[in-house]
Structure formats: C-alpha cells, structure tokens
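FAQ

Q: What does a record look like?
A: Structure on top, sequence underneath. For example:
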C-alpha cells in the first residue's frame, strides 16, 4: 500500500484521540456522578439525625418515641423504599426494621459510615450513625433502595456519551477539514503541473504557498530552469545540425540525379538509383528535423500574424496540383475564408504534410479534398481522402514521432503527422483523425481558434 501524507496525518491525529476519548469520558462520568452520590448520602445522614432525635434516655432506660404519622412522613419517598433501625449499645434492637440487623462495626458518637449492603437479594445504601445514649453509643441505621441513584447514574452515562460523541465527531470533522486545507497547496502544485504540456518549463507560481513548501517550489523552479536551458541547447543543436546537413544533402541529391541522367554503365545504374533514393530520403529527413526544431523554437519566439487559411489552401493548390495529377490523384479544394493567428510558413508546412500523406498513402485513383471554413467559432483546415484510412487503434499513435502504419508507402520516416501535431499545438489548435465521408478513407481536421 502506498503511503499517503493525508492518511498519516489523520492517523497521528486520530490515534491519540482514541486513547484520550475513553479517559475523558470516564473522567466526565465520574465528575457528574460523584456530587450526586454525595448529596444522596447526605440526605441519608440527615434522615439518620432526624431518627436519632426520637431516641431518649430516661431513668437509665432507652426509649424510642415516634408517632406513626411522623414515621410515615419520614419514610415518604416517591421512588425509593426507606428503612431504619435503632440499635442499642449492646446490639439490641430498640425500634425499626429488623432486616437492617446486619453485623456492623462499631461507630463513634457523631460518626457516619456509609456502606452498600445486599439484603434480601436487593442492594441497599446504608448509613450507620453513632449517637450517644447515656454513657454508651447507640447506632441509627438508615437504608434505602437504589432507584434514585440508578436513575441519576443512567442519566450521567447518557449525558457523558452524548457530549463525548458530539465532541469526537466535531473534532474528527475539524481534523479532516484541517488536513484537507493543510494539504491544499500540494494539490495546487499537482494541478499546475498536471495542466502543463511536457515542454512547458515556466516557473511554478504559488504566491500564497506556505513557507514549508517554498523550498520545494523553489527547487522545482530551479530544475525547470535547468531543463529549459538544456532543452534550448538541444533544440538549437538539432536546428543547426539539420540546417548544416541540408546543404550537402541537397547537393548530393542534385549530383546523384545528374549522374543518373549522364551516360553510365548499366551495371552502375541500380547503385546510382539507390544513392539518389538515399540522398532524397536524407534530404527530406533533414528538412523534417529543421521543421521540428522550428516548431519548438517558434513556440516561444515568433510573433504570430493574422492569416486566412484560405490563402494557405490556395498556395497549396499551386504547389501540389501538378504532382497530384501525375500520381493519379483527384485533388480538389473547397476554400472559404477562415482567419487565424499563425505562422504562415509553419501552416503551409502543416498542410503540405497532410496533402503529401494523402497522395502517398491513399494511393492512385483516390480523391483528396482540402477544405477551409469556419464551424462553430473554429477555423477548420481539413484534408480528406477516400483511401484505406488509418485503423482506429493507430490514430493516436500516428501523431507520435517515427510511427509508421503497417501499410505505409514511400520512403517516409513517420515524422509528417508528428510535425502536423507540433505545429497545431503551438497554434493552440487541435488535430483529430476520423474516417472520411461514407466511413471511408481518412479525414484529418485541424481546428484553430478564429480571429476576427
Ligand atoms: N492519408 C493517409 N491514409 C492512410 N494512412 C495514412 C495517411 N496519412 C498517414 N497515414 C499513416 O500514418 C503514418 C504516419 O504518417 P506520417 O506522415 O507521420 O509518416 P510517414 O508519412 O510514414 O512518413 P513521413 O511523413 O515522415 O514521410 C503513415 O506511415 C501511414 O501509415
Ligand atoms: Mg507523411
């Protein structure tokens, strides 16, 4: 299981709570219950004092004089049953309920001793009170059932549980929100990084990030800076190398073409043809590398101008009509005005790649249509053919560099559509590949933002 910062924080906060909560609950329960218990015991003690006032020593004889009404009054309690017993100095019962005649330790005069006694299968709370009688000490025992006490105990338990539950749930909720809130800056960094394209090396901007994250952000930004510098050097190298290679390769292409036209021994012809073919291929590759480098560099440096896609289409018509005709392709143009902000040379290259692909891969006898128009506030440049098309599973792959389809024709390198995609990306345009009309062939559609 992968470790999660959020889980760890919650664990560290909640674990102590699991220990503290029962301790706090017990403490609260005890604090609520003990004053009530004490109060009930005091009442029992008061009852004992009241009973003691009816015990009189007369002529060396102990007498307990209490009217039936007074006894009824003293015993009256809504919930509990009250019992009393007056015991003489030598343990003889003077008055009261004999069931309280349990063996009890002696008490001093004026002393109260509270005990729980199980009598007739019932637990009673009893106070034993020492009262002076002549030279000796008599005992007043008062006991009562526990109905009141049990009720108060249950009440205290419910109050404690409810308050602890409310407190725990609130604390847990607050912790969750606090952890969520505390981790938000990390989420912000993640969101900023996730929204970026792979070559976006701008510094992260999180002005309100907490001070603990500032070193991390600063390290990331330094790394982006270094990567950006390295990537700039690499792109410049690619552009320079491609540029430098282009001239000798063009010369090689021309020379090999001339050599093929000059009289030469028949045995040399296949070698010269292979040489010319390789020179053409290398020249095209150098051009494509140059295009990729330009697309990468232009992303940051070129100022875009307003350009009508219709003009790009018209130029392509001039450039490609003859070649399409000689390849047996019916190349048509349906050009409507669609103004975008862009780089004319790159847009021309984008369209050339698409037309070239259709001529190359759709094959002899097919129909190719180039369209420019505005649809739903987007400027559309599309090339459609009725050739074999590209299988759905390959349509994303062909946009990657060096990917060629299984039935690809010609001596390509799998860079054309990647260049189309690069150029579209730096124009904030989107390339989609679908089947053409009647579910046949290929329709490559590039959707740009319109410019008024
Ligand atoms: N119009 C098309 N019809 C059928 N398949 C196509 C079409 N356009 C492209 N493809 C397929 O997509 C692949 C990638 O195209 P891409 O233009 O990137 O490379 P390429 O044409 O093979 O080589 P390069 O463009 O470098 O000369 C091709 O190899 C081909 O299989
Ligand atoms: Mg191509």
């Amino acid at each position: 299981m992968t470790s999660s910062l959020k889980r760890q924080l919650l664990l560290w906060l909640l674990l102590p709570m699991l220990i503290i909560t029962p301790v706090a609950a017990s403490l609260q329960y005890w604090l609520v219950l003990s004053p009530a218990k004490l109060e009930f015991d005091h009442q029992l003690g008061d009852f004992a004092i009241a009973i003691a006032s009816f015990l009189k020593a007369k002529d060396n004889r102990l007498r307990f004089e209490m009217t039936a009404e007074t006894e009824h009054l003293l015993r009256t309690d809504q919930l509990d049953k009250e019992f009393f017993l007056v015991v003489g100095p030598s343990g003889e019962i003077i008055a009261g309920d004999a069931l309280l005649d349990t063996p009890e330790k002696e008490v001093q005069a004026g002393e109260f001793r509270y005990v729980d006694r199980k009598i007739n299968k019932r637990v009673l709370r009893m106070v034993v009170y020492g009262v002076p009688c002549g030279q000796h000490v008599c005992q007043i025992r008062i006991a009562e059932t526990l109905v009141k006490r049990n009720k108060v105990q249950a009440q205290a338990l419910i109050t404690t549980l409810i308050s602890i539950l409310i407190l725990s749930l609130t604390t847990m909720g607050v912790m969750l929100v606090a952890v969520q809130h505390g981790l938000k800056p990390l989420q912000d960094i993640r969101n900023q990084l996730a929204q970026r394209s792979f070559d976006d090396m701008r510094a992260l901007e999180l002005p309100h990030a907490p001070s603990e994250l500032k070193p991390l952000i600063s390290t990331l930004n330094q790394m982006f800076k270094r990567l950006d510098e390295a990537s700039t050097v690499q792109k410049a190298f690619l552009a320079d190398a491609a540029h430098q290679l282009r001239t000798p390769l063009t010369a090689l292409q021309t020379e090999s073409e001339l050599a093929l036209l000059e009289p030469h021994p028949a045995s040399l012809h296949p070698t010269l043809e292979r040489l010319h073919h390789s020179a053409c291929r290398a020249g095209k590759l150098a051009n494509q590398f140059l295009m990729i480098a330009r697309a990468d560099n232009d992303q940051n440096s070129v100022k875009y101008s307003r350009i009508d896609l219709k003009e790009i289409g018209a130029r392509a018509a001039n450039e490609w009509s003859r070649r399409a005709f000689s390849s047996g392709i019916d190349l048509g143009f349906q050009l409507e005005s669609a103004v975008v902000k862009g780089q004319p040379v790159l847009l021309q290259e984008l369209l050339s790649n698409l037309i070239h692909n259709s001529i190359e891969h759709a094959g002899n006898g097919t129909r190719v249509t180039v369209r420019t128009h505005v649809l739903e506030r987007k400027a559309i440049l599309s090339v459609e053919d009725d050739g074999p098309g590209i299988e759905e599973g390959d349509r994303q792959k062909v946009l990657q560099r060096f990917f060629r389809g299984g039935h690809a024709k010609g001596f390509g390198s799998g860079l054309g559509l990647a260049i189309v995609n690069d150029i579209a990306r730096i124009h904030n345009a989107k390339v989609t590949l679908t089947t053409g009309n009647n579910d046949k062939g290929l329709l490559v559609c590039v959707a740009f933002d319109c410019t008024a």
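Q: Is there anything notable about this one?
A: The pocket of adenosine-5'-triphosphate (ligand 1) is lined by residues 288, 357-358, 360-362, 385, 387-390, 398, 403-405, 408, 412-418, 442 (CB under 6 Å).
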